[in-house]
């Protein structure tokens, strides 16, 4: 596998309203996009740090995986996943599988910001939930 860079770091938050101002202060930049991803039952907020983004994720339903994460984390948010940018996500996923990584998404699907994404299982990635993503619109 050969990711080109860290596309974003996903951080689970209890409340975007409370978290956005904290990240705006910390990063010295305004949140440039808020998007609900219905499929994943989350509302996301994005910041740019160089070519990498910070993605805040607030659950919109108790069934969201982000809600489960927060519950396990004693009602608090925290680091949730790392996302690597790749070229040719289908081939990268096939390679990941052949290398013995466990895939959550066997086939890529649509994510926030129009990216094509797929998650790898933390059991096979040293307990770090790992996302591969490709911008097919560029
Ligand atoms: Zn992500």
Question: Explain this structure to me?
Answer:
The chain has a single domain (5-134), classed as 2,3-Dihydroxybiphenyl 1,2-Dioxygenase, domain 1, CATH 3.10.180.10. The protein is 22% helix and 36% strand. It has helices at 16-27, 65-72, 89-98; strands at 5-12, 33-37, 42-49, 52-59, 78-85, 109-110, 116-120, 130-134. An eight-stranded mixed β-sheet has the order 2-3-4-1-5-8-7-6. A hairpin with a 5-residue loop joins strand 6 and strand 7 (116-120). The radius of gyration is 15 Å and the shape is globular. The structure holds zinc ion (ZN). Residues 8, 10, 55, 81, 83, 131 line the site of zinc ion. Zinc ion binds next to strand 1 and strand 5.
The class by helix and strand makeup works out as alpha+beta
Summed over residues and divided by their number, the pLDDT gives a mean of 96
Question: β content, as a range?
Answer: 35-45%
Tally of strands: 8
Give the count of structural domains: 1
Rg on CA atoms, Å: 15 Å
**How many separate helices?**
3
Helix content: 10-25%
The rounded distance between the terminal residues' Cα atoms is: 21 Å
Stated plainly, the CATH topology is called 2,3-Dihydroxybiphenyl 1,2-Dioxygenase, domain 1
Question: So what's the oligomer here?
Answer: single chain
The major beta sheet can be summarized as: 8 strands, mixed
SSE order in H/E notation?
EHEEEHEHEEE
CATH architecture: Roll
Instruction: Note poorly predicted spans.
Output: none
The strand line-up of the biggest sheet is 2-3-4-1-5-8-7-6
What spatial form do the alpha-carbon principal axes imply? globular
């Amino acid at each position: 596998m050969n990711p080109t860079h860290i596309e974003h770091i996903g951080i689970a938050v209890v409340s975007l309203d409370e978290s956005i101002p904290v990240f705006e202060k910390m990063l010295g930049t305004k949140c440039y996009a808020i998007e609900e991803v219905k499929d994943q039952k989350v509302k996301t907020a994005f910041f740019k740090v160089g070519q990498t983004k910070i993605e805040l994720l607030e659950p919109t339903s108790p069934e969201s995986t982000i809600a489960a994460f927060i519950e396990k984390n004693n009602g608090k948010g925290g680091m949730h996943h790392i996302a690597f940018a790749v070229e040719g996500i289908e081939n990268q996923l096939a390679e990941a599988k052949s290398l013995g990584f466990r895939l959550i998404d066997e086939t890529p699907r649509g994510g926030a910001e129009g990216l094509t994404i797929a998650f790898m299982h933390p059991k096979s990635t040293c307990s770090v939930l790992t996302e591969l993503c490709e911008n097919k619109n560029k």
